[in-house]
Amino acid sequence: MSERKVLNKYFPPDFDPSLIPRRRGPKNSQQVVRLMAPFSMRCNTCGEYIYKGKKFNARKETVDGEDYYGIKIFRFYIKCTLCSAEITFKTDPKNTDYSAEHGASRNFEPWREEKVVEEEDRLARLEEEENNPMKALENRTVDAKREMDILDALQDIRARNARNERVGQASDLVSRMTVEEETEEERERRLAEEEDEKLVREVFSKVSMPAVPGGSSAAADSSGDSPIEATSPQLVTIKRKADDVEPDLRSLLPESTRVVLDAKSLGAPPAKKPKSDLKNKLGIKIARKSKVTV
After folding, report:
1. Helices 110-131 and 133-203, axial angle in degrees (round to 10)
2. pTM, full prediction
3. Euclidean distance between CA atoms 18 and 291, whole angstroms
């Protein structure tokens, strides 16, 4: 069984390729190709717009008697999508583009018109300079003046940029110096604040003062209970001179408080609170066992 995809075919020893009959087609035959519209156009028959990129099944042929430095020019036949009128356009190797030939007109494209106008002006100027030497001299003078103006404007722009760069560097330097000055000021302010805080700590200090007891004169209950006990010690801020020794706490207390403290330290210990009979208050009676007689 032979292979499905044959790569090497058998040629007999007596094979003569010149005996194979050649099919001769027409000289300028047309080929059917698939292409997209190379530019936007409008049908001259119905006014339908055909935009660039529209796909067509076109017929291609070689243009007889036309070429551009040996490059062949091809013509394409398409049909309008609305009225089926025949539209032809061909290649333009000179401008690397396509040109509308029959059945449609190309839409206006300003950039193409500008290029065409510039090219026409250039050709007209060259033709005029060839026939008129004075006109060529005038054109060269105008071109030299225009070039000098351009160079002057460029020099002004460069000088302005250099000046702006110097100003920018100067402003950066000034801002950096300002930041450094502000840093020095902040450092001096911080040192002054630290000195002030140190002086305040030397002048003012907090000491623990013992609480004053309620005493016999102030805190007696109406029911005859013992005086109220003293509260917990408190922190007191005292002011003293920075050069003197810290004063004694007893000397800072008022006279009445010192008398109370002396009486408390020298007097008898405070009387203990009598224990309350909880059994009588709650109404609990304890039954005593009687002695058993023998």
Report:
1. 130
2. 0.39
3. 160
CB of 213 closer than 8 Å to CB of 230: yes
Tell me which H or E stretch contains 89. Answer: strand 86-92
DSSP output for 104-124: EEEPP-HHHHHHHHHHHHHHH
Distance CA 92, CA 67 (A): 10
Q: Percentage of residues in the chain with pLDDT exceeding 70?
A: 70
Pick from 35-44, 100-109, 203-212 the range whose average pLDDT is largest: 35-44
Longest dimension (CA), the chain: 174
Q: For residues 287 and 134, what is the distance between their CA atoms, to the nearest angstrom? A: 154
Q: How many alpha carbons fall within 13 Å on the CB side of residue 30?
A: 9
CA distance 74 to 62: 5
pLDDT in tens, 121-141: 888 888 888 888 888 888 889
Minimal CA–CA distance to 103: which of 33, 45, 158, 49? 45
* Residue whose token pair is 């007689």: 293
Both tokens assigned to 22: 């050649």
Q: What are the tens digits of pLDDT across the range 11-67?
A: 899 999 988 888 777 777 889 999 999 999 999 999 999 999 999 999 999 998 899
